[in-house]
Amino acid sequence: MAVTLILGNRIVSISHKSKIIFIILLVLLQVVFFCGVAPQEPVPCAPRKISCFFCNSSKLKGCEDPFPKRDMFSPHLPTVDCYEDCFKWLYIDYQQKHQLIRGCSSQLILKIDRHLICMYESKGRGGYICFCSAEKCNPGGVAETSPRAMALIFAATLMLLHGVS
């Protein structure tokens, strides 16, 4: 027996075996997307703790970009325990002075969706803030692939490979 789904303007038939795989993938996606979120959200998952680099380039020369790979493993670089997301923020003031700040998103008072990964300043000075959710993931680069995005890509690929036609 096949199940028929309407995805956008396409009609998709799923066999019994594919239906089981589809249900398993949906359950896995719920676990991936709803476990490991910020503890202030009412989701019954155990909070996870990660370490984030914690520095300000105006006070610590080693905080600037490019962030040397050898420093990523240095016990002398300051880190902070974090139950939310790490961030890397390039702030550019009106005199075009650059300041790079790394830390944990719980230190920020922002009314934005951290799950957007990176956001650029609306004032056009070139600054940005990026969020990530892995151990010491804020050393450099504008954006790194999040585990949630990778899980979604993986699930979509499996669905396409296993009988969704």
From TrEMBL:
Main localization, broad class: membrane
GO cellular component, one term: membrane raft
Iron-sulfur in keyword set: no
Membrane spanning residue stretches: 20-39
Pfam family, one: QVR
Keyword hit for Disulfide bond: yes
BP terms from Gene Ontology: regulation of synaptic transmission, cholinergic; rhythmic process; sleep
Keywords: Biological rhythms, Cell membrane, Disulfide bond, Glycoprotein, Membrane, Signal, Transmembrane, Transmembrane helix
Location of the protein in the cell: Cell membrane; Membrane raft
Record membrane topology: Lipid-anchor; GPI-anchor
Superkingdom of origin: Eukaryota
Purpose: Bifunctional regulator of neuronal activity in the mushroom body, and possibly other regions of the brain, that acts as a signaling molecule required for homeostatic regulation of sleep under normal conditions and after sleep deprivation. Reduces neuronal excitability by enhancing Sh/shaker K(+) channel activity; possibly by stabilizing Sh/shaker to increase protein levels, accelerating its activation kinetics, slowing C-type inactivation and enhancing recovery from inactivation. Specifically affects the A-type K(+) current.
Family that this chain belongs to: Belongs to the quiver family.
Subunit structure: Interacts (via loop 2 of the three-fingered Ly-6 domain) with Sh/shaker; this interaction may stabilize both components of the complex and may be required for targeting or retention of Sh/shaker to neural cell projections. Interacts (via loop 2 of the three-fingered Ly-6 domain) with nAChRalpha3 and potentially other nicotinic acetylcholine receptors; this interaction is required for antagonism of nicotinic acetylcholine receptors.
Protein's name according to its UniProt entry: UPAR/Ly6 domain-containing protein qvr
Taxonomic lineage: Eukaryota, Metazoa, Spiralia, Lophotrochozoa, Platyhelminthes
